[in-house]
Write a structure and sequence with these properties.
single chain; 4-stranded antiparallel beta sheet; about 30% strand
């Protein structure tokens, strides 16, 4: 029987220096390169989320670089982190950064925030085109909401999940009260064009559902399976009276 030994590579890869916290997500491309994205939060108040950041490692997490290849001195801090997109506090930025990579190992990051000078939060995809970071606005939502306070928020939109196929087709999965809280997907074949089309994958409401993808199945077979259950969410860890709900897997094959 083979045995293996775990060892800690970093004592503190991303340091908030006792002043903030990093909410991170990661993806690993087909060459084993790790892609890490995160947002900072200054206090327990959700409204203090700010700035979308990035780091990558091609040696299993031993050393880390910016997208440009510039080496990080560890730990990464708010001063030294590569800022993919500068987003001020109070922008309704959610503490999640769904990240994936395309067939060329280029990162794509999906999240939502309220652009400066506007009143309505939108979903966005930030992506690296090989030379620089770019931004694509996914939605054209019309209803405002405030993302502030401590604890879990009852939010009219879900955190998104993102996938990119071998031909560069980008998928963003989400739930939005403007679409009657259905399982929805936004699809774009050319991010530079900014032409997104949105469709609902089921007719029934899923309540406060947040998308969960079978990432292993996507990586191995390029099949899209979502875990679906209608759920409730009270404000600030409160409870919502919801009867037991069926758990199902939604299988979806995009039209080519």
């Amino acid at each position: 029987m083979k045995t293996a030994k775990w060892s800690r590579l970093q004592d503190n890869l991303i340091s908030g220096e006792g002043q903030r916290n990093a909410y991170w997500q990661l993806a690993v491309d087909r060459k084993g390169v790790i892609h890490l994205s995160w947002v900072w939060r200054e206090t327990p108040d959700v409204s203090t989320n700010h700035d979308l950041c990035y780091a990558t490692s091609s040696d299993g997490g031993r050393t880390w670089q910016r997208a440009s290849g510039h080496q990080y001195q560890l730990p990464i801090t708010a001063t030294t982190a590569e800022i993919v997109w500068r987003i001020p506090q109070g922008s309704e930025l959610i503490n999640q950064t769904s990240i994936t990579v395309d067939s060329k190992g280029r990162p794509y990051i999906a999240t939502y925030w309220r652009p400066q000078g506007e009143s309505v939060p939108q979903y966005f995809v930030t992506y690296h085109d090989g030379a620089r970071w770019r931004l694509s606005q996914v939605t054209r939502r019309t209803s405002a909401f405030s993302l502030s306070g401590q604890g879990t928020r009852r939010i009219p939109v879900s955190r998104p999940q993102i996938l990119v196929d071998a031909k560069g087709l980008t998928f963003v999965f989400f739930r939005d009260s403007e679409r009657s809280d259905r399982v929805s997907v936004a699809i774009c074949s050319d991010l530079k064009s900014g032409n997104w089309r949105i469709r609902d994958l089921a007719e029934q409401s899923v309540g406060m559902w947040e998308p969960t993808l079978d990432q292993a199945l996507w990586a191995m077979r390029k099949k899209i399976h979502l875990l679906v259950q209608k759920v409730g969410q009270g404000e600030g860890e409160g409870l919502e009276n919801v009867a037991p709900q069926m758990v199902s897997v939604l299988e979806w094959a995009p039209e080519r």
